[in-house]
User: Fold AAA family ATPase from Candidatus Iainarchaeum sp.
Amino acid sequence: MVIDRVKTGIPGLDEILDGGIPRNASVVLAGGPGCGKTILAQQFIYNGAAQLREPGIFITAQTDIQNIVWDMQNFKWNFKALQDKNLVRIERVQFDTKADVSMQVEEQLTLIGNMVKEIGAKRLVIDSVTAMGMWIDDRGTLRNTIFQFLSEVKKLGCTTLLTAETSGDKNEFGSFNVEQYVADGIIALYFVPPNRGIFVRKMRGTNHSKKVHPLEITEDGIVVKNKDEILWQSLSTR
Ligand SMILES: Nc1ncnc2c1ncn2[C@@H]1O[C@H](COP(=O)(O)OP(=O)(O)O)[C@@H](O)[C@H]1O
Ligand SMILES: [Mg+2]
Assistant:
């Protein structure tokens, strides 16, 4: 059976995914700080809009919007032109800890859903699920809220990347231990100085590489060395 795939447009990444991410999949992008999650997610939105005219939405829950601006200037990706053409939306979500967070999550879902309809978005990024959960203290509520949120996001009909901060441990694939139950795919990024790596842990409905591949962050963004391999044993654990 031929399945419909979404090309990330990231050199080497579509190759290790057997052609791309299955359309409408929700994929967790997990990794420690500075391993390239935000850059990869931005590149996914940028390439979709710039190369394939597929509208995309980038939701940031980062407290510092400046980081996003830096990344974009850094790689000379002209998001502004794409925003003007309604091919890209970049939105920041923020929560007020004094109010009911579950209700705010509901509101955010409605807003995201409306944005998806408005521009006919095919790609969506939530960066990061970890930051969204930061506002919720109680662990039970946290897991439940994140689970509900991710389940609802899946229904929006977009191919979605959900970034998740981990400690950087090679066997950690999410922040709250709930992401994996909702996700169709899990991609882990590693940064064991001086080496960066990428590993497709799971991708429902498709074959994929089972190796850890070197990843480089260049002045044009992320490049995956799909022909090369990093040995699993060489990724340090703590
Ligand atoms: N132009 C560049 N060339 C090489 N590496 C870069 C460049 N820009 C950023 N980086 C690297 O990318 C890292 C940030 O990646 P980012 O996607 O924000 O990480 P994460 O979201 O996983 O925390 C920086 O810490 C730096 O090491
Ligand atoms: Mg980030």
